[in-house]
Sequence to fold (262 residues):
Amino acid sequence: MTANKDKETGSERISEAEYAVMEALWQRSPQTAAEVCDTVCEERGWSMPTVKTLLSRLVAKGALATEPDGRRFLYTPLLERHTYVGGESKRLVQRLFGGRAAPLFAQLAENEALTEEDIAEIERLLREMKK
Amino acid sequence: MTANKDKETGSERISEAEYAVMEALWQRSPQTAAEVCDTVCEERGWSMPTVKTLLSRLVAKGALATEPDGRRFLYTPLLERHTYVGGESKRLVQRLFGGRAAPLFAQLAENEALTEEDIAEIERLLREMKK
DNA sequence: CTATTCAGACTACAGATGTAGTCATAACGC
DNA sequence: GCGTTATGACTACATCTGTAGTCTGAATAG
Fold:
């Protein structure tokens, strides 16, 4: 997985369209191209060629693995959702908040992006962190 | 400023290179193109034409205003840093965390991206929010 | 066995982005 | 007033991203 990790932190990033495909496969994999399209094409307004392109690019980026199944491939993520999401979060914090999380939190609080459930959850996490 | 706000939330986004230019002008404005270059060119490895292009694109996007000063322009942000940063934060949360902030917080906590100062600050903010 | 199908491989193109070069001219300096 | 200069306007090109079309042939179906 080390090589895969390099891909994530290197210059090849997963684009937003590619992320939508990854999300579908994180939820359920392995899947064929047609199955992925069933999952995302209606909601994204894509057609099958689009999905196939994105899958192909993700394979080239090392984010997906392929397993032949008859004449088609079964696609499986090599890049974990957790890894991707963590990288993107950290990147935003570093890029816009000087690497500090508190200003981000303040920003979200100010935008009323924090629900009561969020607050309760964060408090619980803070308590755990103090142990 | 309403029109400007539309620009931010519309399809025209500020790219990363453009953001670097904005950051320089948020720190100090108005500035001329040459002054902006003095600020960012060495650190980014850019030359003057690059900065000029980015400034020009930002003006076209409505993020910067120009004021003639002799044969050159003084550039001033129309898009506030606060607005931009808030939009990007919200966008990440919506895109990767289903619109919920707590999972983002948990992610940052897990990545050891939270300093003790961050935690203290967040606790303070939580207390204020409960008033 | 044959006809059909479907999915990967390959291609296309527009727009966005990153980085930079060229040129004309109004402003500047002497 | 004249020569110089700096800067905006315009252009260039490579890469990335978004979206999709075409084609071939191996797998599939009958």
Remarks:
- Residues 9-79 of chain B form a domain with the Arc Repressor Mutant, subunit A fold (CATH 1.10.10.10).
- Confidence is low (pLDDT under 50) at residues 1-11 of chain B.
- Chain B has seven helices and two strands.
